[in-house]
Specification:
eight-stranded mixed sheet, DUF4806 domain-containing protein, 14% strand, six-stranded antiparallel sheet
Length: 648
């Protein structure tokens, strides 16, 4: 169903445009009559009752007083019969056949101050409704109050007109064997953010694929193909979306539209009048999604590792991958194409992703540390310490668990606003999100676990913590080889402390994690965190159980009509004069507490700590990682440039 306007609105706005055409269109008509130009299509044959020397278009507009009067004599108004939006009626090539932007610019110039105010109010209401995900019923109620009580008569009564919502019937939905698929388009997403992001000549795209359950009472789920323009990870957009009672039966059929579009982008395309080259830089998936897309064995398979040819062992009713002193043989793209290791594949047909020019199918899929380390290894360690899953030698008594929980509670006031969550008790450990586990691994863990867990377990944990801090820092690349050795030591020692039968697929994959740093840099550049954050946005687009895919498509179309608000997430940190957001390290090496700042001059004022010491010295001095114990705050207030702030 098209967009509707009242007859009064149509008459008033079309009158303005036709007055403009009254001066210009007739000249075009007369000139083109002599030369038989295609512009003759602009106006229908002149009726006998109108003078030939001048076409008074305002008389035709007056006929709109009677809705029954046909205005089909003029092609300019043909789209009104379908209740199309004013923008498409007045300026599109379908209605004017003029094909120039002059009419649009003229229309904008002709808007009076009152009309601009009306348009601004409409835009603000639409942006509020879309960004706040307000239901249509609620918006309709607000519109009626504003229209009839606040006398804002220019507002529509139906939010679908305000939001430019399309018809209930979403076109171009592809029916698959087990569900439905809609392709939003990679280029469409890039163009949408082209005015917000600074695009290089070479645009690199990160892609994420995963399943999203949308109901607790059924198996219905979304399988989105998401992407963002690197490094602008805060602007995630959908490329395609599948909905069904199960995941797509054939992964190649699921990816076919995506592959077709990517192959069409092999040559450079024009965005904002500039030639751009687009390449797929990385795929970020968890292990089940990766095995589904690549059509290979899952994490419980004997030959499931995507980076090497190690064969798993079946010990104590589980598949494990004990550390091999003899080294490992790495997989490569050619081996995948030729299916050299048949035990690695689950289908005689390989993934259609190999059709992408220049792709290295083995290394383009990152070892996502969100699933691998945070939800995998860190969660596994906690379960071994807190439950009966691990050996009795590492299990913690209840009083030690309570001590750790008390320490976490005390640290709440020390957690800056850069973190999305505050620490909470270990009794909620089964509910911990990936961000909480990441915080425990990198920040709070070395503090709360000290002198509580055994020395062997603590030093073993510190090995992982230090290695991950190196891999998640862009300025510690000089320690990358050391981080690789630390991860190798962690895997080797893991089977000594917890048992070789507990060396799972995730634990083994740590041996390959440093390779991703060599290829992508900081592991945050190739993680699934941005895509996981966008999943809740997709879920919020669903307002009822019926036709969830169509709902998401319509909500996204509404979102595309709203101006994108530039995010401030690109800032490395926030600073304040209030604790705990007032402590920083500066380039001179001092740790300071900010007492005041002046943004206009770019200066900060504060006091520095006189004494600094390492928190730990094994496996690496913590000062090398920017982790220090400080005390003895000076009395004198000094001044620094904001640009001198190095870390928080």
């Amino acid at each position: 169903m098209g967009k509707t306007y009242s007859y009064r609105t149509k008459r008033r706005r079309i009158q303005r445009e036709l007055e403009y055409l009254n001066h210009d269109a007739l000249d075009v008509f007369k000139e083109t009559t002599a030369c038989s130009s295609p512009c003759l299509d602009l106006i229908a044959p002149i009726p006998d009752y109108l003078p030939t020397d001048r076409i008074n278009l305002s008389e035709i507009v007056n006929n709109l007083q009677d809705p029954c009067v046909s205005i089909s004599r003029l092609e300019v108004s043909s789209d009104l019969e379908n209740n199309e939006s004013l923008e498409s009626v007045d300026t599109s090539e379908k209605s004017l056949k003029l094909g120039s932007e002059r009419a649009i610019k003229h229309y904008n110039k002709q808007l009076s101050g009152e009309e601009k105010r009306e348009e601004n109010i409409k835009h603000a209401l639409g942006q509020w409704a879309v960004e706040s995900n307000v239901s249509q019923i609620t918006v309709n109620k607000l519109l009626k109050i504003l229209k009839f009580k606040a006398q804002l008569t220019f507002l529509t009564q139906d939010c679908r007109t305000l939001l430019h919502t399309g018809s209930n019937r979403v076109m171009n939905i592809k029916v698959m064997k087990s569900g439905l698929y809609y392709h939003f388009g990679l280029v469409n997403g890039i163009k949408r953010y082209s005015s917000t992001c600074v695009l290089d000549k070479h645009i690199k795209i990160a892609v994420g694929i995963d399943g999203l359950p949308i109901s607790k009472s059924s198996t219905a789920a979304f399988w989105p193909i998401l992407a963002y323009i690197m490094p602008h990870k805060q602007y995630v957009f959908p490329i395609g979306l599948y909905y069904g009672s199960d995941k797509p039966e054939d992964s190649n059929a699921f990816l076919s539209d995506f592959i077709t579009e990517v192959l069409g982008l092999f040559d450079e395309i024009v965005i904002n009048n500039e030639s751009k080259k687009i390449t797929i830089e990385v795929f970020s998936c968890d292990v089940p999604a990766k095995s589904y897309v690549l059509r290979i064995k899952g994490h419980s398979g004997f030959f499931s590792c995507t980076r090497c040819t190690i064969e798993g062992e079946y010990v104590h009713n589980r598949v494990c991958f004990p550390y091999d002193e003899n080294g490992i043989t790495k997989r490569n793209h050619e081996d995948y194409l030729n299916m050299v290791d048949e035990e690695h594949h689950v289908s005689p047909i390989i993934s259609c992703l190999v059709l992408i020019p220049g792709i290295d199918i083995v290394n383009i899929f990152s070892l996502d540390y969100m699933h691998l380390v945070c939800l995998g290894i860190m969660c596994k360690l906690l379960n071994h310490w807190l439950t009966t899953m691990g050996p009795s030698s590492v299990r913690l008594p209840s009083w030690k668990v309570k001590t750790i929980s008390d320490r976490l509670a005390q640290l709440k006031i020390c957690i800056t606003n850069d973190f999305s969550r505050k620490p909470r008790s270990l009794k909620y450990v089964r509910l911990f999100k990936a961000t909480e586990l990441r915080q425990l691994l990198l920040y709070t863990g070395p503090v709360v676990f000290e002198n509580i867990i055994s020395d062997d377990c603590y030093n073993h944990f510190l090995t992982l913590s230090v290695a991950m801090r190196i891999l998640l820092s862009s300025d510690l690349n000089k320690y990358i080889d050391y981080a690789r050795k630390l991860l190798e030591y962690f895997v080797k020692t893991f089977q000594q402390i917890y048992g070789s039968h507990l060396v799972s697929h995730n634990v083994h994959s740590l041996l390959h994690l440093a390779d991703d740093y060599d290829k992508f840099g900081n592991l945050d550049n190739c993680s699934a965190f941005p895509f996981e954050n966008y999943m809740k946005t997709l879920k919020k687009m669903i307002r009822k159980h019926e036709k969830p895919l169509q709902q998401v498509v319509r909500r996204y179309e509404e979102l595309c009509d709203v101006q994108i608000t530039k995010s401030n997430k690109c800032r490395e940190f926030n600073f304040s004069i209030k604790e705990p957001d007032c402590f920083f390290s500066v380039k001179s090496g001092h740790i300071i507490q900010i007492t005041d700042f002046n943004l206009s001059t770019g200066c900060i004022f504060g006091r520095s700590f006189k004494e600094q010491s390492d928190m730990y010295k094994i496996p690496l001095k913590s000062s090398n990682l920017g982790i220090l114990i400080v005390k003895d705050l000076s009395v004198d207030i000094k001044q620094w440039k904001i640009s001198s702030i190095e870390k928080k």
